Amino acid sequence: MQAAVVREPQSEVAIEERERPVPQLGHVLIRVHACGICHSDLDVQQGAFPFAQYPIVPGHEVAGVVEEVGEGVSWPERGARVGMPWLYSSCGHCKQCTHGEEVMCPEMQVTGVTQDGGYAEFMIAPAAYVAPIPESLDFAEAAPLMCAGLTVYNGLRNAGFEPGNRVAVIGLGGLGHLAILYALAMGGRVAVLSRSPDKEDEAKELGAELFINTDNGSVANALLEWEGGADIILATAPAAELMNTALPGLAPDGTLVVLGVTPEEIRVTPMDLVPSRLHLMGSPSGSRKDIRDALEVATNHDIQPQITRHSLEEAGNLREMQEGSLRGRAVLVME
C-alpha cells in the first residue's frame, strides 16, 4: 500500500510503499477513502508537538470502510462505513475518561500524531474508537467533520450554546465556514469577523447576517452594536491579537472560545472579565459521544463542507495546501 510519511520533524512528506497492516486483537483495518488535511498535520511535519512519534503517517480526519477485523471484534463489521478523529484511544479509567471527557485523558493516543493516521490507503484503528459514518454522507465530505466539524460543534457545546445565541466567528477558513454551518443548524445567529473584505459575499452566502471587516474601526464596538454583543465568539483562526480586540464585544455572560492554536499571547485583565462576567476558554476536539453527535447534526441539517480534493501523492505539498488560498477544507481522496 501507499502511505505519506513524515520521517522526522521538519522533513518533507514522503510517499512510501508499505506492507498492508494486519489488525490485531481489538482493532480493525480501515480502507481509507478520504482523509481531510488539518493545520495540525503541518504542525506534525514541523515538529510542533513534543509528544509526536516519528516516523508517522499524519491524518486524523479519516473516512473509509472496515476491510478486516481483528480477534475479539464484534463491532464494527467488515464493510461498515467508519471514521477516525483526533482521539485514537484513551486509558478508560482516569477521571476524564470516566466522566466522558476522554479527549483530555493524560494517556490519550492521537491519530496521525502518536499513531499512524489516514494519509494512507489503509490504517489500523481500535474498534472501540471508530465512529459510524451515516450512509447519507459522502466520504470526502464526511472526512472534515471528523475534526473541523467536531471541533466547532464541541466549541459551541462547551460554551453553553443555546438556540438564538449570537455567535461571532473569527476567520472564514476550513474551521470558520463549518462554524457558520453548525451554529445556524443549531439555531444560532452568526456574524463573521475577517480582515479579508473579499470574503463578505461568501460569509453571507453561508448564512451569516453580519460581516465585520476587522481592519475598519473597532471590532468590539461593531459587535456591541449587534443587539448588545456576541453571546459566543468562536476563534477559529490562530490570531491572538484579533481575539484580544474582539473579547470586549461579548454580551454579559458571553464566552470567547479559542479553537485556533497560536503561540501568541491573549491579553486579558480581571477588569476585562469581572464586570460583565465574561468567560475565556479553550476547547479541544471531542470524545466518542461528541463525534457521533456532530455527525448526527450534520446529517439532520445537511451540513456539507466546502472541500478541495487532492490525490495522496499531493500530500507532499502539505504547506502549500495549508498556506494557499483554498476555500474550505482540503481532502486527500484515495482512488
Cα-atom Rg, whole angstroms?
20 Å
**Low-confidence runs of at least 5 consecutive residues:** none
Shape: globular
Helical proportion, percent range: 10-25%
Class computed from helices, strands and strand pairing = alpha/beta
Largest sheet descriptor: 7 strands, mixed
User: Would you identify the CATH H-level superfamily of the largest domain?
Assistant: Medium-chain alcohol dehydrogenases, catalytic domain
DSSP E strands, number = 17
How many structural domains can be distinguished in the coordinates? 2
Describe the 3D structure.
This protein has 11 helices and 17 strands. It has 335 residues and is of the alpha/beta class. The strands form 4 sheets. Strands 3, 4, 5, 8, 9, 16 and 17 form a 7-stranded mixed sheet that branches. A 6-stranded parallel sheet has the order 12-11-10-13-14-15, sandwiched between helices. The longest helix is centred in the last third of the chain and has 13 residues, at 288-300. It is globular, with a radius of gyration of 20 Å. The protein starts with a strand and ends with a strand. 49% of the residues are buried. The model has no long low-confidence stretch (mean pLDDT 95).
